[in-house]
Design brief:
Length: about 290
């Protein structure tokens, strides 16, 4: 396998042409061409559709690009693990977390992790569930914490915490304004997160399973932004109980009490089995064990 050629191939895809890829890799443009030719010979396929204006990947090129990213990430992770083993370097862990977990659940877990391992070096990336799954799949993070579903067969998935979601509206000052049945939420405006968010997917499931139609849907790619919109009376939302304690205490939001309805989902952690023996990952799994369902 041509490791340097794979790195060059990735650079060509991401930069969009051979010249910029050569500058990025600090090699000559003829060397870039040789690397691509070697890969095309090895895999017996054209990787690019060449035109005067633009390079486009072939279908096999797209497949190689995804795998090349994984291969190079595995290679770099292996180098790091060997270096840590030989030189006892500082523990390093990259965690990817979906928004609700990253903003409201993860901080106390990190506090516990630091108590146990004050020398650990951490990097946290926050995104929606689909983004975190992709980061883990491509080894851009070691460990993922998600609130939505993960059907990626190449990853290990384990639930670790139950999350109860609440339907929320602006603070209700008058008893006469209270909503007490699910039917009263028909043809209302809803405020929710973007596509790819676990919370968005769960809310859509709840509306669909109860036969509710939305008059309008306002999309905001931030949990705090969703809450602010609801506070201002722009609509209703379904949101994690972890995210609304402050607003409830300050009488900015009201929970809409729907009789005999409890909305529960599971938070999960995900990682590639390839990294299962990485020491920092094992350390963080032990922290999660105290939260495990």
């Amino acid at each position: 396998m041509y490791y340097d050629a794979l790195r060059t191939f990735i650079a060509v895809v991401e930069e969009g042409n051979f010249t910029k890829a050569a500058e990025k890799r600090l090699i000559s443009q003829p060397s870039v061409s040789v690397h691509i030719q070697n890969l095309e010979k090895e895999f017996e396929t054209a990787l690019f559709i060449r035109s005067p204006k633009k390079l486009r990947l072939t279908s096999t090129g797209e497949l190689l690009y995804e795998r090349a990213k994984q291969i190079t990430q595995i290679y770099e992770a292996t180098k790091e693990e060997i270096s840590q083993h030989l030189h006892e370097h500082q523990l390093e862990l990259k965690i990817g977390a979906s928004f609700t977990i990253g903003e409201y659940v993860l901080p106390p877990l990190l506090e516990e992790l630091f108590k146990r391992n004050p020398e650990i070096k951490l990097e946290v990336i926050i995104g929606n569930t689909n983004e975190i799954i992709e980061y883990v799949k491509l080894f851009q993070v070691d460990f993922g914490l998600i609130e939505g579903q993960c059907n990626e067969k190449s990853l290990h998935v384990s639930p670790f915490l139950k999350d109860e979601l609440k339907i929320i509206g602006p603070f209700q000052k008058k008893k006469s304004e209270e909503i007490t049945s699910i039917e009263q939420l028909q043809n209302r405006t809803w405020v929710t997160r973007e596509k790819g968010s676990g919370t968005r997917a769960f809310m859509e499931h709840v509306l669909r399973s109860h036969g509710l139609k939305a008059k309008n849907v306002i999309t905001i790619s931030s949990t705090q932004g969703v809450k602010e919109a609801v506070i201002r009376g722009m609509g209703f939302s379904l949101i994690s109980n972890f995210a609304i304690s402050s607003e409830l205490q300050n009488q900015q939001l009201s929970i809409i009490p729907i009789q005999d309805e409890i909305f529960v989902r599971k938070f999960s952690y995900i990682y590639s089995p390839i990294l299962k023996n990485k020491k920092p990952l094992e350390v963080f799994r032990k922290v999660l064990e105290r939260e495990t369902i």
